[in-house]
Amino acid sequence: MKASTLRHAIAVAFILPGAAFASCGSAFCTVNTNWTSHSALIEAGSSFDLHYEYIDQDQAFSGGDKVAVGQIPHHHDEVETVNRNLMTTYSHGFGNGWGLSISAALGDRDHAHIHNHHGAALTNEWKFTELGDVRLLARYQYAATGDAMNPGRAGIVIGLKLPTGHFTVENAESERAERSLQPGTGTTDLIVGSYFHQRCTADDASWFVQGQYQRALNSRDGYKAGAQFSTDLGYRKGVGERLGLLAQLNFVHKARDSGVNAEPADSGGRYLFLSPGLSYTFSERLQAYGFFQQPVLRHVNGVQLTADRALMFGVSGRL
Predict the structure, then answer these.
(1) Residues 37, 49: contact at Cβ < 8 Å?
(2) By the 8 A CB rule, do 156 and 187 touch?
(3) Where are the beta strands (DSSP E) in the chain?
(4) Residue 115 contacts by C-beta under 8 Å, 6 or more apart in sequence?
(5) Structural domains in the chain, sorted by start
(6) Backbone phi, then psi, for 257, in 5-degree steps?
(7) What pTM was computed for the model?
(8) Which domain of life does the protein's organism represent (predicted)?
(9) Which of 103, 106, 170, 216 is the most buried if burial means most Cβ atoms within 10 Å?
(10) Does residue 13 surpass a pLDDT of 80?
(11) Three-class SS state of 225
(12) Rounded to the nearest 5°, which phi and psi values hold at 265?
């Protein structure tokens, strides 16, 4: 494989779309995806990433245990949330280590829960397709090792999640969805992170580690999402000229939501995922990839919906 193709295929992402976990089950996949659009390219240029996620959250958890719907009585018994997310990112490097990225999501979400009201069990449903919150991030990357055969680069990222997504979506009966289910949080969030990635040229392999912290700077209409910390460890091994074997461990810790319109008792938790995948290089400017994400650890506060698996498919490349 050409050196430039290899560099583009294994450059490591350092900005997540923003994994979200809540009692209703709204979620984004936690896989670290973009080989080129988030790679903090030293040379000037633009890149992109576009991927689709499918997450069917149909398994209720209490603490670290699976529970049946309604097994632990609640005012609302969460049944299922199906998340179909289309994520897009544009990134530009200025050729001096600095770069900017903008990312947005289109979420297609189906949610159902049972409303226990004066002894009656009423099923409520929401189905909507909406744009979510936009993220703007700046980055700086620098050479961290002097080994030409095993070059390593480190970097930092800082930015904001903007309150662009709606947070007042209603169903056909004019009932507003819970705030944790809404396409937007209504708040402006600070995002900071750092990363390191290294390429092992002789072995046609690479690895990376990343940490990221996100915290809402304000509350909006009685709601403030809990702060979130995530860390990722990933590895890629080239197989032949175009195929790459991928593996990641993704850890997320989310604090409880707060506010009169939040559900602090049923929000927040700890999650660890194993995410194997494949990548295929079509050219120096275009790659495709896919991941299968499997939970290794799920420990939630209260009762929350979780997914037994998630799927992701996407393309990334240079413009």
Answers:
(1) yes
(2) no
(3) 45-57, 59-63, 65-67, 76-93, 98-117, 120-131, 135-143, 152-161, 189-200, 205-216, 228-239, 243-254, 269-283, 286-306, 310-318
(4) 75, 76, 121, 122, 123, 124
(5) 3-318 (2.40.160.40)
(6) -70, 160
(7) 0.89
(8) Bacteria
(9) 103
(10) no
(11) coil
(12) -70, -25
- pLDDT number for residue 168: 95
Per this entry, what is the length of the chain? 319
Q: What does the pLDDT look like over 256-276, one tens digit per residue?
A: 999 999 999 999 999 999 999
**98-117 vs 76-93, strand pairing mode:** antiparallel
Q: What angle do CA 250, 255, 261 make, to 5 degrees?
A: 130
Cα distances (angstroms) measured from residue 288 to each of 10, 36, 104, 239: 12, 11, 19, 15
Find out whether 222 and 230 touch, Cβ atoms under 8 Å. Answer: no
- Interval 225-230 mean pLDDT: 96
Pairing of strands 152-161, 286-306: unpaired
Secondary structure (3-state) at 175: coil
The amino acid present at 132, given as its one-letter code, is G
Question: With left for phi above 0 and alpha for psi between -120 and 50, is residue 252 left, alpha or beta?
Answer: beta
Please state, as a whole number, how many other Cβ atoms lie within 10 Å of the Cβ of residue 238.
21
Task: Of 118, 110, 124, give the one whose Cα is nearest residue 77.
Answer: 124
DSSP string across 16-35: -------TT----------S
Residue matched to tokens 């999402």 = 225
The one-letter code for the residue type at 34 is N
Average pLDDT for the chain:
86
State both tokens at 238.
């080239």
Q: Looking at the DSSP assignment, which residues form a beta bridge with residue 126? A: 111
SS3 203: helix
Q: Which tokens in the block code for residue 157?
A: 């990222």
For the cut 50, the answer to whether the pLDDT of residue 2 exceeds it is: no
Q: pLDDT, tens digit, for every residue of 278-289?
A: 999 999 889 999
Of 69, 20, 12, the closest CA to residue 225 belongs to 20
**DSSP class of residue 24?**
T
